[in-house]
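REQUEST ID: PR-0412
SUBMITTED BY: lab tech R.K.
PRIORITY: routine
TASK: structure prediction, single protein chain
INPUT:
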Amino acid sequence: MSPDNASELAILQSFTRELMDQASRDLGSRLDWVAVDHWNTEHPHIHIFVPAAPTTAKIS
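STATUS: complete
OUTPUT:
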């Protein structure tokens, strides 16, 4: 994700948290996720990883 105003780390992190909170609400389920911010390009951005199954799910 790369919002237009991602020039500061706090803005980028806040944007990501809000995005993932909204995704959780839309799905009606708590999402486990992790994100990594990148500042080594012209456009600061975040990679978000969401596991395919909740960590509390039992997989047989």
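NOTES: The beta strands are 34-38, 45-49.
REVIEWED BY: pending
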